[in-house]
Amino acid sequence: MKGWFQLIIDYRERLGLKHEADAATSVGIMRDFDNNNEHGTKIAKHYRKRVTERMNKKSLESEWVEAINGQEDFILDEFRRRGKEGKLAIDPAPVFWETALGESSKMVMFKFAIGIDLREKPKRLEKLIRCGKAGIEAFDGIDQHSLIFEWMPKFIRKFIPISLWPDYIKEQSELLDEIIEIVAEVKAENEQNENESSLISVFENDVKLGKMNHWDAIWTIHQLIIAGNDTVAISLRTFLINMAKHQEEQERIRNALKERNYGQKELKDCPRLFAAIYESFRYSPTVSESTPFHTITEDTTIRDMKFKKGDLIRSAIGAMSFHVGKEDPFKFASDRFLDENGDFRKYDASVPYHVGRRDCPGQILANIQLFHISKIILKHFRLTTSEMSVFQNLQEFENIYSGGKFTDADHYLPNLKENRVVFVPISDE
Ligand code: HEM
């Protein structure tokens, strides 16, 4: 893991770019708190606390919901145009790569992290989206070429021409440059205006208070951008595919949304929609395994399996989801996530964001995005498809996923092979 970040730092040094930090912070952010990277561990704990505090602020939730609702016309126009008014089946994900992260104005993720309007800076927006996507692809779908580079001793690496270095290094360096510039802008703005309008402003204040340093703030924003981009886009795509494949479910959710004229403000205002989002996570997980940054904290035996303190483990999130509820696991049935009062029901085995000290710090924001963007789409479009197979057993389940080579687009997340949906405008029916 250290190699991944160290390579970006070495690349910048080779180009003569200023870089005071070593990879400690980023490694700490991405690895278990129990390792012996003291500075990284401290910063990882601190940044997670700050992200959670900010996400839990109810006063900010309405701002994000407003930001998403502000995308309604954009989402409507995009799907009508790309899907030729309901005549063409399209892959919805590219729209979300723009909306989940960006959109023309009030991007939710960037609004949360950066707090500035990128409408007048389309080049910056394009760069953040492109480099963020390249970051997660390189991180999760690491290939031999990158591994050899990461683990080769630095004194050998310095003789290798920069043109032969893996492409993602260049992109991650570009991303860092952009973040450095944005942080400087936010800092200048904060000097005139004391309020903490974004996570960057929060971190900037922490830098002043000595709780983190400048580079910790930069690396943390880098992590959030790469982790919060494709995950939301792919989850949205999968949810829409599941809606297109399961017409009755789709209709029931639409009816529930209509009851309040699509005015639901919070997740609890439409448990049926939230249940379907969780059923979609269960039925076709976005992230099928936790990160490998968890260690056993004391010797433990579970059934006949013995784990020793310090063992590295990762959870099979996808496999666990086959143990949620009593119903057939191969059946898409969002009712399993509703209790007898019709409220959302949780399960220990349903952990799309995993659990514990390294669980996903972006989950509140992600759920808000999934809920409100889906609501807008179901309001304006009936989703259909002719090309998707429904699976009834494990083998069929595996067959509908890409299972391809690392070079396949999107291989790093378990993606459905058939992913096109027809967006039929409801007003035109
Ligand atoms: C539907 C969307 C998302 C899903 C399914 C998802 C899922 C996950 C999962 C399973 C992990 C690993 C947790 C573990 O191993 O314990 C994770 C980690 C992480 N996620 Fe998310 N995530 C999503 C969206 C986001 C967003 C929007 C952000 C940023 C705002 C984000 C930031 C992160 C970060 C920084 C980590 C690493 C945490 C650490 O190692 O301490 N994620 N996510």
From TrEMBL:
Similarity comment: family membership: Belongs to the cytochrome P450 family.
Names of required cofactors: heme
InterPro entries attached to this UniProt entry: Cyt_P450, Cyt_P450_E_grp-I, Cyt_P450_sf, Cytochrome_P450_fam2
Keyword Iron part of the UniProt annotation: yes
Xref: SUPFAM superfamilies: Cytochrome P450
Keywords: Coiled coil, Iron, Metal-binding
Coiled coil: 169-196
Source superkingdom: Eukaryota
The organism of origin for this protein: Oikopleura dioica (Tunicate)
Pfam families attached to this UniProt entry: p450
Name of protein: Oidioi.mRNA.OKI2018_I69.chr1.g1646.t1.cds
